[in-house]
Amino acid sequence: MNLIVIGPAGSGKSALVSSFSQFLKEEGYDTKAVNLDPASPPVYDAFKDVREFVKTEEVMVKEGLGINGALIRSMDMSLNYIDELIVKSDFTIYDTPGQMELFVYLNSGIEIAKKIGKSDASVCIFVVDTAVASTPENYVSILAQNAVVSLRLDMPTLTVFNKVDVRKVPTIEEVRSKIREGGGVLSELMEGLLDFMNVTTARYRTVAVSAKSGEGLDDLLCAVNEVFCSCGDLS
Ligand SMILES: Nc1nc2c(ncn2[C@@H]2O[C@H](COP(=O)(O)OP(=O)(O)O)[C@@H](O)[C@H]2O)c(=O)[nH]1
Ligand SMILES: [Mg+2]
Question: What is 2-228's CATH superfamily?
Answer without folding.
Answer: P-loop containing nucleotide triphosphate hydrolases (3.40.50.300)
